[in-house]
Design goal:
- By secondary structure, the protein is of the alpha/beta class.
- The chain has helices spanning 2-30, 48-61, 73-81, 96-103, 134-141, 160-169, 185-194, 205-208, 239-244, 264-273, 275-284, and strands at residues 36-44, 63-71, 87-90, 110-124, 131-133, 152-154, 179-181, 199-203, 221-223, 225-227, 234-235, 250-257, 287-288.
- It has 2 domains: 36-116 and 251-288, D-Maltodextrin-Binding Protein, domain 2; 119-249, D-Maltodextrin-Binding Protein, domain 2 (3-Layer(aba) Sandwich).
- It is 39% helix and 23% strand.
- Strands 1, 2, 3, 4, 6, 7, 8, 9, 12 and 13 form a 10-stranded mixed β-sheet that branches. It has a 3-stranded mixed β-sheet with strand order 5-10-11.
- Strand 1, helix 2 and strand 2 (63-71) form a beta-alpha-beta unit.
- Helix 5 (134-141) packs across helix 6 (160-169) and helix 10 crosses helix 11.
- It holds the Pfam family PBP_like_2.
Length: 303
């Protein structure tokens, strides 16, 4: 009888240990890594098309699921500080106050530059003038009634394009008159395509990789050439002009990771800055932070 009890006890311990071991093994397999798991990434709405392409390729390559949340810049920062997500894509690095906020929690933000973007000015195709001087835009933003600009159209009052231009003009807020704002870059393109005399302000990514909602409107707009401050030449927001540094409304794009661990956010940041991610940036029409290499195969014989 004692032998039977002892045998049952040993069997129970063995089975229990096996169950616990399997459970622990399963939990390890489900654990997020730099190339596996789930993560939510906040992204500036002005560069949404590019990041959608990056995520599609990343998910098809690795066992990962990325949820993309596109918002205006101010909304992104608010969500980021509330820990809605530990990863954000912005057209600027964190400022001193934002960086110190995370350092209070022993988290050092990891910032990776992966592309150079451009803010584009667009007008209705019926407007004959396809040139715009940045000094006239600044004059308009400062409330000068003599400015040649009749009106500006923005995607969102809290967007990165608004912040960029107000900083450029050294004003705290937009004029109350002749400034229009919507909810997305798509709506800006649609409005300008249907209304003459207005200048729309959009992320160039939406013009280079248009959604099905705005493709038909692109034939009714002009992308304007821009003259920089104290310059005498006009330049279009092309990849070549971004590379040469001649387009005056260029801005860098950053992925900022405050997860505090080596999670999927770090893996995606490495992907963006790596060979494949940089090729996707190149194909999008933006400027990669590191130009992808080209392999040339030389054959002695031609079949």
């Amino acid at each position: 009888m004692r032998k039977l009890i002892l045998l049952l006890t040993v069997s129970f311990v063995f089975v229990s240990g096996l169950f616990i071991s399997c459970k622990q093994s399963g939990s390890k397999q489900d654990k997020e890594t730099i190339l596996k798991g789930k993560v939510t990434i906040l992204v500036d709405e002005t560069v949404k098309p590019l990041i959608e392409d990056q995520i599609a390729v990343f998910e098809s390559t690795y066992n990962a699921k990325i949820t993309l949340v596109a918002k205006s810049e101010k909304e992104l920062i608010q969500s980021f500080m509330k820990d809605t997500s530990g990863v954000v894509i912005l057209s600027r690095p964190l400022d001193t106050t934002e960086t110190k906020f995370f350092e209070r929690f022993k988290i050092k933000p990891r910032v990776t530059k992966f592309a150079t973007d451009a803010i584009a000015f667009i007008s209705n195709a019926k407007d004959l003038d396809t040139l715009v001087a940045l000094k006239d835009v600044v004059s308009f933003l400062k409330g000068d009634a003599q400015s040649k600009i009749k009106g500006l159209v923005f995607d969102n009052p809290n967007s990165s394009t608004v912040r960029y231009l107000t900083e450029l003009a050294a004003v705290k807020e937009m004029p109350q008159k002749d400034v229009y704002s919507f909810k997305s870059n798509e709506e800006v393109v649609k409005f300008v395509a249907e209304n003459e005399g207005m200048i729309g302000v959009v992320g160039v990514n939406w013009l280079l990789q248009p959604t099905s909602n705005i493709k038909n409107y692109l034939t009714n707009i002009n992308v304007l050439n821009v003259e920089g401050l104290n310059k005498k030449s006009y330049f279009a927001p092309t990849q070549n002009n971004l590379a040469e540094g001649t387009y005056p409304l260029a801005r860098d794009l950053f992925i900022i990771n405050c997860q505090g661990t080596s999670g999927l956010g770090m893996g995606f940041a490495s992907f963006l800055a790596g060979e494949i991610g940089q090729r996707i940036v190149l194909k999008s029409g933006m400027l990669p932070s590191a130009m992808p290499g080209r392999k040339i195969l030389i054959k002695n014989r031609i079949k």
